[in-house]
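Example (one chain per record):
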Amino acid sequence: MNTAKLLARICALLLGLALAAVPPSYPQEPESPAGEQAAPVPVEQPLPYSHKTHVALGIQCRDCHAIADPGFAAGYPAEATCMACHASIKTDSPHIQLLAKLNSEGTAVPWKRIYRVPDFVWFSHASHVEDAGFECETCHGPVAQREVLFQEKPTTMAACMECHARNNAPNDCDLCHDPG
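Predicted structure:
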């Protein structure tokens, strides 16, 4: 390995260690005064949605959350996907009426993200779900049992590295970080 690449890897490692010590800028579970984890707070969404109810009807994660190329994100469902059923189901609900209005206007529901990795981290849903065969619950918890969602699992560098170690996956810095 040439000197420039070695220096870049050392810088990336030092940056990763320094950033691991900085508190994240995305929501985390609050801590109780005793230092124990407090009960997680569900994220209030613009429309109520029960994953539990929909999964009980046979709907699977990827029926609504497609992993589009290049595979970095599992997207939110298109409003038309929801309306395929809700054009005739619960049409008297004010929430479904709002969904129908947004759909007819071509406006996306402004869902609030629950899980986020920092912008400087490369993460691919495709490599984890399609290539490695992990179930969504591995990272997102038992969503199928939830009426409302909250962040159940950490998206920290330590958590990801522990998972990679448990699954004999590489933990090289440049796997998730671009050393430049």
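Caption: The CA atoms of residues 9 and 178 lie 9 Å apart.
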